[in-house]
What we know:
Elements: E1 2-6, E2 13-18, E3 21-27, H1 44-57, H2 74-84, E4 92-93, H3 94-100, H4 107-115, E5 128-129, H5 142-151
Parallel strand pairs: 4-5
Antiparallel strand pairs: 1-2, 2-3
Amino acid sequence: xxxxxxxxxxxxxxxxxxxxxxxxxxxxxxxxxxxxxxxxxxxxxxxxxxxxxxxxxxxxxxxxxxxxxxxxxxxxxxxxxxxxxxxxxxxxxxxxxxxxxxxxxxxxxxxxxxxxxxxxxxxxxxxxxxxxxxxxxxxxxxxxxxxxxxxxxxxxxxxxx
Length: 161
């Protein structure tokens, strides 16, 4: 496995890839700075993910095409595939995703799979919102979800408790 990190408007991100594709993206603790990828790193999936993330943050990319290899249950992978199909600048509710995967009563399970997404941003779980069209549930911090949605041209209020 290969690892690299990048700085972003959302904080430093660590990426891990195998020969099959990108395995994970996680945000580093506050104050941790990103390290440049090793000059010897030849993992094409890692290098493509870094290039595409930098273009996304610069406003030059609306669709990721790098190879992803998230690890999860069959249900989680179905949800993540559905999330990956949500276009830039579009949001869907947990219930809509549940219906799209053929399990209309599974919106809570969809929320659980969404929460366990190992590759946020590239598998755009930030595009899933509450049924009342408000920002809810983002394990990486609602401020990051709000930033990404605004970056994609969507302004939504935070959900009221």
